[in-house]
Amino acid sequence: MKHSPFLHGRWLLFLLQCFVTSELLAESLILTCTRTERDFSETYELKLVTAGPGAAKGKVFLDGRDLDRTGPDSQQSVKNVLISKQKASYLISTLFEAEVLEGVAYSAGSVMSVVMIDRDTGKLRKVDTIQGGILGKNLGDGTRSYEEQCVTQP
Q1: Cα–Cα distance between 15 and 3 in angstroms, integer?
Q2: Residue 73: what pLDDT?
Q3: DSSP string, the chain
Q4: How confident is the model over 58-94, as pLDDT tens digits?
Q5: 150 Cβ contact partners less than 8 Å away, ≥ 6 residues apart
Q6: pLDDT value at 130 more than 50
Q7: Is the pTM of the predicted complex or chain greater than 0.90?
Q8: Contact 93, 112 (CB under 8 A)
Q9: Residues 111 and 130: beta-carbon distance below 8 Å
Q10: Cα 88 from Cα 48, distance rounded (Å)
Q11: What pLDDT, in 10s, does the model give residues 24-34?
Q12: What is the rounded CA–CA span in Å between residue 25 and residue 6?
């Protein structure tokens, strides 16, 4: 069966539309953020990438390190990344295995982190909910919030 040039043109147009649409579906935002606590200050790069073709979920990178991590004692997973004109946010779940550190036994624990960034002001607000584990034992179970300042990179 012979294909007409018209059919090839339509096929090419379809592929081009898919490519353009896929580029629109995945969005990224790169920020330089500064964390300040008492007399300590730290600056880092934060990159958010929404889900798109080839990626089932969004990603978050801190100084180039992927925050989706699995190690022998813990598992951290980015659950959701959203970027809009006014705000950006992401949700991270971290699970810790029970452990013994310097002779002290700690139960398994978890931290659920919600990070919200106001794109107009650059204000980053992080809310951590800690349950059990070494963090729960040392900081106490419950919710804590932190604020940082960010600047969008061009």
Answers
A1: 17
A2: 87
A3: -PPPHHHHHHHHHHHHHHHHHHHHHS-EEEEEEEEEETTEEEEEEEEEE--BTTBSS-EEEETTEES-EE-SSEEEEEEEEEE-SSEEEEEEEEEE--EEETTEEE--EEEEEEEEEETTT-EEEEEEEEEEHHHHHHH-SEEEEEEEEEEE--
A4: 999 999 999 999 988 899 999 999 999 999 999 999 9
A5: 31, 32, 33, 34, 46, 117, 122, 123, 124
A6: yes
A7: no
A8: yes
A9: yes
A10: 8
A11: 456 999 999 99
A12: 29
The mean of the pLDDT values for the chain is 85
**Is there a contact between 27 and 83 (Cβ–Cβ < 8 Å)?**
yes
Place of tokens 């090419």: 12
Closest CA to 137 of 108, 94, 102: 108
Length in residues, the chain: 154
Number of CB atoms found within 10 A of residue 32's CB: 14
Q: Which two tokens stand for residue 147?
A: 């604020």
Residue type, 11: W
